[in-house]
């Protein structure tokens, strides 16, 4: 079969085969996918197809086998998912972490960047300077000012009672031993 003959065959057979595979799979997109894949495989063998033979039957068989294979793979995946227990819930951030993030958001961007890179990403002052493009002395000043501002803001939050230690506020009456 020449390329032109194959193109003409594709144009006439693709819609018909897609309809047949749609009836088989029940999913139009899946039917199009498997028929297209079967035509791709047939393209490599087009010289072996004769115009008077039944290339459509060969493509239909390949497409049906592909559909069954995909269905089996999907079924195995579903069985695996059903056997795998759901992941345990991860607790959210504690109040201290939430207060820290809120306080960091209030800092100027340059100070916040220096503190995050140095204290949370464990980069040295020189590495922070390299990454931000700022001189080492400037990074040290940003860290100093940022830490001072963070300490002030976190102390204010603690004084306001917005940050609890432990399981929450403890009343003096509950501390008594009866």
Structure description:
The chain has 178 residues and is an all-alpha fold. Helix content is 73%, strand content 0%. The longest helix has 29 residues, at 55-83. Mean pLDDT is 83; it is low at 163-178.
Regions with pLDDT < 50 over 5+ consecutive residues? 163-178
Quaternary organisation: single chain
The biggest sheet, with number of strands, parallel, antiparallel or mixed sense and barrel status, is: none
Helix/strand order, N-terminal first: HHHHHHHH
Radius of gyration based on Cα positions: 33 Å
Q: First CA to last CA: what distance?
A: 97 Å
Approximate strand percentage: under 5%
Q: How many H/I helical runs?
A: 8
Q: Would you tell me the overall average pLDDT?
A: 83
- What structural class results from the helix and strand content? mainly alpha
What's the total number of strands?
0
Q: Give the overall shape, derived from the CA principal axes.
A: elongated
What is the percent of helical residues?
over 70%
Topology:
Elements: H1 3-25, H2 28-44, H3 55-83, H4 95-106, H5 109-120, H6 125-132, H7 136-160, H8 172-175
Helix pairs in contact: 1-2, 1-3, 2-3, 4-7, 5-6, 5-7, 6-7
Task: Quickly list its features.
disordered C terminus, 178 residues, 8 helices, mainly alpha
